[in-house]
From TrEMBL:
The lineage of its organism: Bacteria, Pseudomonadati, Pseudomonadota, Alphaproteobacteria, Rhodobacterales. InterPro entries: DUF427, DUF427_sf. It comes from the Bacteria. Residues 15-105 form the DUF427 domain. This is Uncharacterized conserved protein, DUF427 family.
Length: 114
């Protein structure tokens, strides 16, 4: 694995909320730590209500993880552009995050341990 990336099973149960709705809850989330950056929780796709997410044309490239695809969160009152991402074909060293989604936290999106 890339020397400064670790992936572990996240302790406990995690939830992601946006626009007053629970988008997902999982006891199978992963925690990815990379260097000095804050850890990121990755939710299994099957634990997310994908009906709230619309794939966008936005993408980014990470030399350690690969190409990320982005999703907007559609709530009753707004669309949160590119608020979630997924490495659908991650590099071998981080293959565990395949079929998982991560979310940018903000005043409109919360990722919390229950």
């Amino acid at each position: 694995m890339a020397s400064d990336i670790t992936i572990t099973k996240a302790d406990g149960t995690w939830v992601v909320r946006a626009g007053g709705a629970v988008l997902g809850e999982s006891s199978n989330a992963l925690e990815l730590s990379e260097g000095e950056m804050p850890p990121v929780i990755y939710f299994p796709r099957e634990d997310i209500a994908m009906a709230f997410l619309d794939r966008t044309d936005h993408s980014t490239h990470c030399p350690k993880k690969g190409d990320a695809s982005y999703y907007s969160i559609v709530t009753k009152s707004t669309t949160l552009e590119n608020a979630a991402w997924s490495y659908e074909a991650p590099k071998d060293d981080v293959a565990r995050i395949k079929d998982h989604l991560a979310f940018y936290t903000s005043d409109k999106v919360a990722v919390e341990q229950l």
